[in-house]
Prior knowledge:
Shape: globular
Protein name: NAD(P)-dependent oxidoreductase
Helix content: 25-40%
Keywords: Membrane, Transmembrane, Transmembrane helix
Oligomer: single chain
Domain NAD-dependent epimerase/dehydratase: 5-193
Transmembrane segments: 6-30
CATH topology of the domain at 4-173: Rossmann fold
Mean pLDDT: 94
CATH class of the domain at 4-173: Alpha Beta
Number of helices: 7
Structural class: alpha/beta
Radius of gyration: 17 Å
Organism: Paraburkholderia agricolaris
Amino acid sequence: MAHRVFVAGASGAIGTALVPLLIAAGYTVFGSTRRVERAKKLEDAGATPVVVDVFDALALRNALLHIAPQTVIHQLTDLPPGLDPARMAQAVTANARIRDEGTRNLVAAAVSAGSSRMIAQSIAWAYRPGATPYDESCPLDIDAQGTRGTSVRGVAALEQHVLEARSLTGTVLRYGQIYGPGTGADSAAGSSPLHVEAAAYAALLALQRGKAGVYNIAEDAAEVSSAKAKRELAWSPDWRSVQH
């Protein structure tokens, strides 16, 4: 039987790029969305849609028990269309909730379903200020104030849930600032930019190579070093789907 993968947040920007890669690599993909109207998009991409809200712990657990995925890939975010500046402050709080409560529910459901792997999206701009480039051993800025503090503490909770989960091999991908199709940003920006297709490729490689731990995923000359991902995952920031 083909390896079953449950992609949480499959209709988001990275999920949209990732699902076709997984299917092309021979995985059986189940993709979650909380919006019924997005199910057809997932079907058209070759995935089995699962309409479920990560905050409904019982429904999520039942869905994963039915699917019994070997691997769960966490690409959930709660961002406004086009990264609308007027709504970003609210999005910071919503994202922090997904990263903490949502991840906790997803991990519990994966454990109940007998999954063995979890790969989760984190962020690469959460490091405590210091000498750059930051590598994965550098501390996160958990004492930051304001919206930054909210984001970083949400990220720290997500990473703890994934890396310390009972019976799961956890991989955390600290993505840089995403740009490209579906992201609301057409070109590279920020301290550690990353194309959405290269981000998706990193998740595929993490699955194929079975590596646990934390990986920075960003373009060359970023504020963070992605040397570990290049070395252990054979990842490249230049990868685009047109190459395959």
